[in-house]
């Protein structure tokens, strides 16, 4: 089947961009279907590193067409900036190579200001959002006063709509949050200019993709965020405002049923999270420093979008199995195995204990994990660099055992193991 879907199984930053880059080698179209510039996907090719926030990571391959679906919320300022940075890095961005859905929703500076004001008002209950205006933009969509990118095709009415939206959000900013209002005229003028630049990219991506699928072209749907950040299935309310899970790939691109091939889950060999919310296997102290890194390496655990240090912990196989179920994953790609080198012993959460009772599945999903105590299984670690290894059987025995045990716990095949950020640092398992 010509549609493969890549999904984060954790709280985002699993290395989806890195895995998309591998699969995009054989794809014709690479499509983002949810989220906005809260995402930060990293692709490293040789000594060049690309950081993508809105444009699908597969665009780095010359032969692909990038698609930004109706399920996305798009800040045109960040998008234009990303286009310039990619062009500077040698990636061609033209209206032929990148198509944006007319039904994607717009993020304006007013949404960003509202995101910041709402976070401030939450006090100690902060979600720890990326402050990119994601929540307010999706709220506007659901409440049916959002602006869709199709409106950019008529610059005048678009600028008017932006002005009216900023005026309306100003009411909330000043009356509810005691925050500074924005200048609607200035924002409208700025956005009219963005509309002029982006209009040639806007079209009906559903039509493009259905035509491509009919001709048996290969489409790769690139998930953003992760299963545990899903509005319905994540650690609510510490989630994002969209649905990053697999079914949204159809909804967020305007594709019908019947095309889905592989649904590939990406998991780190350990667990990370940025922002607030429960994280049962979180560790602190020296071990956390070891898993997170100091920030010296580009792959150390600091947010690709916000630069915030990520919280780190042991892999949680209960949550992994949950992600496999929610998304109907067919296989797994494990990233960052190299980071576990030198840690003894390794731990994996295989269940939870509450009030003396043990659970292998979460009774009420992951929303309230706060009282759950993880039950760990210990596995022997390994020493010695694995970043140069390209064949499963060449890995240290303990590293093989770690992967085999994960596969047993997951119940689906692990087909890819990443041992470094660079494109070639990968082990394919038949
Ligand atoms: P995404 O949001 O899921 O695309 O992930 P991010 O790009 O935000 O974060 C993943 C980070 O891990 C990036 O810095 C990648 O370059 C890096 N990375 C991916 N795979 C590996 C790996 O196997 N080993 C190491 N050391 N780094 C990796
Ligand atoms: P990628 O695609 C990690 C998190 C934020 C916060 C919560 C809500 O790079 O994996 P939002 O700004 O979306 O309203 O924030 O979701 N979050 C991410 N964490 N990776 C991401 O994307 C994320 N996108 C949102 O940190 O906890
Ligand atoms: Mg990321």
What features would you describe in this structure?
With 430 residues, the protein is α/β, with parallel strands linked by helices. The chain has two domains: 314 residues, Adenylosuccinate Synthetase, Chain A, domain 3, CATH 3.90.170; 96 residues, Adenylosuccinate Synthetase, subunit A, domain 2 (Orthogonal Bundle), CATH 1.10.300.10. Helix content is 30%, strand content 21%. The chain has eleven helices and 21 strands. The longest helix has 23 residues. The radius of gyration is 21 Å and the shape is globular. The mean pLDDT is 96. The structure holds guanosine-5'-diphosphate (GDP), 6-O-phosphoryl inosine monophosphate and magnesium ion. 6-O-phosphoryl inosine monophosphate (IMO) binds next to helix 4.
Terminal CA distance reads 19 Å
How many strand elements?
A: 21
CATH superfamily of the largest domain: Adenylosuccinate Synthetase, subunit A, domain 3
CATH top level assignment of the largest domain: Alpha Beta
Q: Detail the poorly predicted runs.
A: none
Major sheet attributes: 10 strands, mixed
Strand order of the largest sheet: 9-7-5-2-10-1-11-15-20-21
Q: CATH architecture of the largest domain, please?
A: Alpha-Beta Complex
Bound molecule kinds, no repeats: guanosine-5'-diphosphate, 6-O-phosphoryl inosine monophosphate, magnesium ion
